Amino acid sequence: MLNRIRQIPLYILAILLLLFTGLPFFVMVSTSFKTQIEFMSAPWSLPESFSFENYRLLLESEFFRFFFNSVIVSVISVVAVIVLGAMASYPLARMRFKLNRPLFILFLVGMMIPIHTTLIPIFLLTKNMGLYDTIWALPGPYIAFALPVSIVIFTQFLKDLPKELEESAKMDGCGPFRLFWKILFPLLTPAVATVAIYNFIQIWNEFIFALVLTNSEENATLPLGLREFYGQFSVNVPGIMAALTLGSLPLLLIYLVAQEKIVKGIAAGSVKG
């Protein structure tokens, strides 16, 4: 009984955190079912009658073109980050060589670089490569800026794996390539989930690089597409909320599927031994 009483503050804190994080999402979803007039007259009330007009407008607009552009860019970037980050972390975590520590510190320094300071050189490089105003201009910068933090996560996780697994595989004649992909990589599932979710959220919501490196609606991503709901003298707030609701669904679904792996990855990366 005493333990339950001691846990009451924790339950109160959990409820407050739930309200703090869940209330904005609830307001967003409820507003998406309002008309513009209803929103202007009572912005914080529940919808009087659920209207699907905003979702019908989304179907008639270019929303799903923007949506699928974001899906293509995000999936390609995240898969590349996982593969390249895991491969780069293997020698940093399991091999001893002179540049091991300096290289790891170099990746840590890469996490500190403000990415928007590189807009001009990346823009010029993209234009010289003939990739300007294509969705293929975006994965390169996204992958480059996502790799440092991903390599740090993978490296810390690989260091915690028992070396006996590696030694046993080598005794059985397993080469480095097969050792990594068949033995070690399957054990990185929690770290992979953490890296995938973290970078997917960052890339899915990225706006500045998409704005600078693309110029047409055909190649615009979802954050750019939301500007379609801004008029010269007014803003279709319920329409924006409907677009945000649909745009946030992939993030929610992926997190719900992989949340257990993410928690394990964070816990494993924070504990040594």
What keyword list fits this structure?
273 residues, mainly alpha, 0% strand, transport, MetI-like fold, globular
Looking at CATH, which topology would you report? MetI-like fold
Distance between the termini: 36 Å
Classified by CATH, the class is: Mainly Alpha
Indicate the overall shape: globular
User: Architecture, according to CATH?
Assistant: Orthogonal Bundle
Q: What is the total tally of β strands?
A: 0
The pLDDT mean sits at 85
Q: Report helical residue fraction.
A: over 70%
CATH homologous superfamily classification: MetI-like
- Rounded to the nearest angstrom, the radius of gyration is 23 Å
Main structural class: mainly alpha
The helix-strand sequence is HHHHHHHHHHHHH
How many separate domains? 1
Low-confidence stretches: 269-273
Put simply, the count of helices is: 13
Summarize the biggest pleated sheet.
none
Strand content: under 5%
